[in-house]
Amino acid sequence: MTRYLFFSGKGGVGKTSLSSATAVMLAKQGAKTLLVTTDPASNLGDVFGQEVGLEARAVEGIPHLFIQEINPHQALETYKDRALAPLRELFPEEFVQAAEEKMSGPCTEEIATFDQFIACMHQPDYEWVVFDTAPTGHTLRLLELPSSWSLHIEESAHGSGQTCIGSVDALAASKEQYDNAVRALQDPDTTTFVFVTQPASLPMEELLRSADELRKLEISNQVAIVNGVIPEDERIHPYSRRRWLKQEPHILDLQSRFSGQIGYMPLYADEVNGMTMLEQVGRDLQHAIQL
Asked: N or C: which end of the chain has fewer CB within 10 A?
């Protein structure tokens, strides 16, 4: 298993359940594990019954497991507070206000969010970092950012010497971090990208498009998990068999078009909620696929 696991896919396919079950499984094995959500609409707090914030917090009742949320708006405020603190001691309020207004655009929010993402990847205290990501489009943008920002800094160095968040000189250390992040994402021994899908047309087509986009970013270590498959011993019931007959063509189509490893998770009779179900999902996942 690689150190970084990214769970992604279309909304509503089970990313949070599977990423949470994986993180619980790793923590139960004694490995210090960080579960990070990059999805502003995530229900990670509901899954574990506690608040999730910008800083990592220990999960109550599960030793070795920590959870964290990357929220763009909170990340922006934290970034601005940190950047403006030295200015407040040296310059009049009018100057600080002007600087704050300049840092209130989408450019700064994007880089603030990205800085949080990079910080999660570079935390040395954790053996595993599991990402519960936003729906695929947001995630692709996030994964594009290391290369985009590294290139922007490089181009700015040959031009005005300025970026939207400061001078190129001040961002030299950041560029090195971005380049390291790119290398980690592209290294199949370090990062696995886990697509979660349902056995239906729309989420599977999105999976295949996203797989192509990731390959363009040279992120090649990809696996797929088909979630919610009718169990084999349930397919004799007329209702379940009808559902299986609708699922099967999509599964066969994915097998013919996706080049990575594919695992299959059953449709559970009960909602995946609570520690007992998460542990069950974690055990089933271990049998379904080699992450």
From this structure: N
Q: Which of 29, 21, 226 is nearest to 130 (CA)?
A: 21
Q: Write down the pLDDT at residue 81.
A: 81
Taking the C-alpha atoms of residue 12 and residue 88, their distance in angstroms, rounded to an integer, is: 45
Say what the pLDDT of residue 73 is.
Answer: 80
Q: Which residues make Cβ contacts (< 8 Å) with residue 213, sequence separation at least 6?
A: 140
Closest CA relative to residue 75, chosen from 35, 42, 106, 45: 106
DSSP 32-86: -EEEEE--TT--HHHHHTS---SS-EEPTT-TTEEEEE--HHHHHHHHHHHHHHH
Give the model's pLDDT for residue 167: 63
Low-confidence ranges of the chain (pLDDT < 50): none
SS3 235: coil
Q: What pLDDT is recorded for position 266? A: 97
Residue 29's pLDDT is what?
A: 94
Paired with 65 in beta bridges are: 33
Compute the distance between CA of residue 27 and CA of residue 23 in angstroms, rounded to an integer.
6
What pLDDT is recorded for position 93?
Answer: 84
This prediction has a pTM of 0.87
DSSP-assigned beta bridge partners for residue 34? 66, 129
CA 160 to chain centre: 34
Do 158 and 41 touch, CB atoms closer than 8 A? no
Contact 100, 84 (CB under 8 A): yes
pLDDT of residue 110: 74
Instruction: Tell me how crowded residue 169 is: count the other CB atoms within 10 A of its CB.
Output: 9
CA distance 58 to 230: 35
Q: At what angle do helices 72-90 and 106-121 cross, to 10 degrees?
A: 100
Name the token pair of 285. Answer: 């996942």
